[in-house]
Design a protein that fits this description.
The protein is an alpha/beta fold and about 250 residues long. Helix content is about 40%, strand content about 25%. It has two domains: about 120 residues, D-Maltodextrin-Binding Protein, domain 2; about 90 residues, 3-Layer(aba) Sandwich (D-Maltodextrin-Binding Protein, domain 2), CATH 3.40.190. The strands form four sheets. A five-stranded mixed beta sheet has the order 5-1-6-15-7. Strands 11-10-12-9-13 form a five-stranded mixed beta sheet.
Length: about 250
């Protein structure tokens, strides 16, 4: 009887170890960088939580693929540098997929189409779009918006770590225009309709992707698999209605 009890105890311990091992293998922890200054895609709400379209999207992907996410709020320039250096496993932050960025990081399949837009003060009648921009024009540092400003000879780029500060300077008359992603721009215009207006329409065609550190091809495969499932279930449209089209 004593030997039987010892045997059963050993079996129970072994089963516990196997179950523990199996449980641990179903969840992979992923350190995710985001610049939470870009509403409605990622921002910090009144409860000091990082929320937005991108955050909900990655959480939905993680649920499909058994990933455990740790979001890290980091400024845009350090985010790109951190991804290039492998500081973070992944990043989701309204990141446009570009050939230059592909040199430093991997990208998921595209998940959202966007483009750049010019915003000016409501009393401005001289700037009617990208090609008529003159003087100081604000954009967030390292973004495709900043790259577009630099292409206009009459415009002088002024960069910001936080795009909200650029819009504040615009309303205060310190710069002539701001160039940023269309949905973000329209959000600022809607909240400040007495002071701001968008001009010229969307003038670029861009796709957002989830960035993944180079070498993490297994993680990239999981993200793409989860993204495909989320897309097939119509969750992109659901999130758009929740965060963007409201």
């Amino acid at each position: 009887m004593k030997k039987l009890l010892l045997f059963l105890t050993a079996v129970l311990v072994l089963c516990g170890m196997v179950l523990s091992s199996c449980t641990g293998s179903t969840s992979t922890k992923v350190r995710v960088a985001t610049d939470a200054t870009w509403p409605p895609f990622e921002y910090v709400n009144d409860q000091k939580e990082i929320v937005g379209f991108d955050i909900d999207l990655f959480k939905a992907i993680a649920k499909k693929e058994g990933l455990e996410l740790e979001f890290v709020n980091v400024a845009w320039d350090p985010l790109l540098a951190g991804m290039a250096q492998g500081t973070y496993d992944a990043a989701i932050s309204s990141i446009t997929i570009t050939d230059d960025r592909k040199k430093d990081m991997l990208f998921s399949d595209p998940y959202y189409a966007a483009g750049q837009m010019v915003v000016v003060r409501k009393d401005n009648t001289t700037i009617t779009g990208k090609d008529s921009m003159t003087g100081q024009v604000g954009a967030q540092i390292g973004t495709t918006g900043a790259m577009e400003v630099e292409k206009v000879a009459a415009a002088t780029l002024k960069t910001y770590d936080d795009i909200g500060l650029a819009f504040q300077d615009l309303m205060n008359g310190q710069i002539n225009a701001v160039v940023a992603d269309n949905w973000l721009s329209l959000g600022y215009v809607a909240r400040n309709s007495n002071d701001l207006k968008a001009v010229g329409g969307v003038f670029t065609s861009e796709s957002y992707g989830i960035a993944v550190a180079k070498g993490k091809t297994d993680l990239l495969a999981k993200i793409n698999a989860g993204l495909a499932k989320v897309k097939s279930e119509g969750q992109i449209e659901t999130l758009s209605k929740k965060w963007i089209e409201k």
